[in-house]
Amino acid sequence: MIYLAVIGLEVHTELKTNTKIFCSCKNEFNLEPNINCCPVCVGMPGALPALNKKAVEYAIKAGLALNCEINTLTRWERKNYFYPDLPKAYQVSQAEAPVCLGGYMEIETQNGPKKIRINHIHLEEDAGKLIHSEYGGSLVDYNRGGVPLIEIVTEPDLSSADETLVFLENLRALLKYIGVSDCRMEQGSLRCDVNVSLRKEGEPLGIRTEMKNLASFKAVHRAITYEINRQTEILNSGGEIIQETRRWDDQKGRSYSMRAKEDAQDYRYFPETDLPPVKISSEFVRQVKETLPLLPKERAQKYVEEYNLPQYDAQILTSEITIADFFDECVALFDNPKMISNWIMTDVMRKIKEHQTEDIVLPINAKNFTKMLKLHQDNVINQPAAKTLFEHMWHQDSKTDPEQLIQKLNLVQISDEGELENILKEIIQNNPAAADDVRGGNKKAIAFFVGQVMKATKGKANPKTVNELIQKLL
């Protein structure tokens, strides 16, 4: 029997504010355990919360980027459950009136563009962190408690592990692009729960299971694939799917049942009495909207229309804001967008992939990068020398003026016809058979002589001048 997969996501994203959502404790990662807490974050009796305005601003910013409607009145609820990392035994969240409603993100799939709908985005405080010991027992670090996060809840519009991966990659890029989160999964600032169900063609949605403990996009992909196969086997053998929460074990490549899946009523949501509702004015939304950068899709369109770049190149250049900003800086300094794009698409992207990290850091600045390109364009250095100079600037010296570096590295191109002609004549004299091949129209023989001149000049000869001299002499 063939079943269709139906997948929805709950994406938890910590916001990059300076302080926590309801207190003045710093929003920092990697501190000594339990030193970044106060009576508010650990739920001491009588400690009252005060809302961080920047967290609301960032939530609205994410909502606008995802085409959401911003709620004019948003409220807080207590989500009640017991777990060691939640000292209050409730989490301040939003259920009835989240800050953002609706919305969508369009992704590219094998079958063309697909719109993935957003149900809502709500704000909440993060819980602490449980650290499980391999020797038994668990430790609790409350530093993370009270960190502001948004939960982005999608509609069940995804239909495969591949589609889910594309959506998550696009979402992470967008949230980093607008500056609301660093989205580092290894630090827990981006976490994802996946709801998976199966149904037959034309039938209603099946019973869903929720997958947790997904620490990487690779784990998300593996867990979805595993869950689809697990549910398919159960249904094909006549069994029934149980609504439950399952924990993914990435080392073993399988999931384990944690508990029966809770519904909203199980959390006994009720109003947070210590926080008033928040009115969001259209003027405040307008102010937030003005802080949004040009989003990837619009920015790519600008590159296509203004700079005549191919659509694919424009999409790559705008996929990360660090790359897009670098490209814009370069274009402002050097009026050759196509040349800049070609170098970024090849050499710069190659270096980024070689040293792949969560955050892209470019050791080379736009000023010196464009100076290098201009030296190449003006035939001061040739292509091989430009590549050598780029490698040196990337790895060793990105601050020295490229004009000084080409002298230091002896990379200045030889374009003097007299000097190159003397070198070429000697090579022709030593290779009479190859010279006859050129005279006979053999193009490979021309490449041979160009290569020999390059070898004799240690790659510094002007290839155009060399080709012209070959035509002249042979």
Q: What can you tell me about this protein's structure?
A:
- This protein has 474 residues and is of the alpha+beta class.
- It has three domains: 283 residues, no CATH class; 106 residues, no CATH class; 57 residues, Arc Repressor Mutant, subunit A, CATH 1.10.10.
- Strands 1, 2, 6, 7, 8, 11, 12, 13, 14 and 15 form a ten-stranded mixed β-sheet that branches. A three-stranded antiparallel β-sheet has the order 5-4-16, with no helix packed on it.
- Helix 3 links the parallel strand 13 and strand 14.
- The termini are far apart.
Unreliable stretches (pLDDT < 50, length at least 5) are none
In percent terms, what proportion of residues is strand?
15-25%
Task: Give the C-alpha Rg.
Answer: 30 Å
Tally the helices: 15
Total separate domains: 3
Question: What separation lies between the terminal Cα atoms?
Answer: 73 Å
Largest sheet data: 10 strands, mixed
The secondary structure category is alpha+beta
Q: Whole-number average pLDDT?
A: 91
- Quantity of strands, as a count: 17
Large-scale geometry? elongated
Task: Estimate percent helicity.
Answer: 25-40%
Helix and strand arrangement:
Blueprint: E1 4-14, H1 53-65, E2 69-70, E3 73-74, E4 77-80, E5 90-93, E6 100-101, E7 104-109, E8 112-125, E9 129-132, E10 138-141, E11 148-154, H2 161-177, E12 190-199, E13 209-212, H3 217-236, E14 244-249, E15 254-260, E16 270-271, E17 278-279, H4 282-290, H5 296-307, H6 311-317, H7 321-333, H8 337-354, H9 366-377, H10 383-395, H11 402-408, H12 417-430, H13 432-439, H14 443-456, H15 463-473
Parallel strand pairs: 13-14
Antiparallel strand pairs: 1-11, 1-12, 2-6, 3-17, 4-5, 4-16, 6-8, 7-8, 8-11, 9-10, 12-13, 14-15
Helix pairs in contact: 2-3, 5-6, 7-8, 7-9, 9-10, 12-14, 12-15, 13-14, 14-15
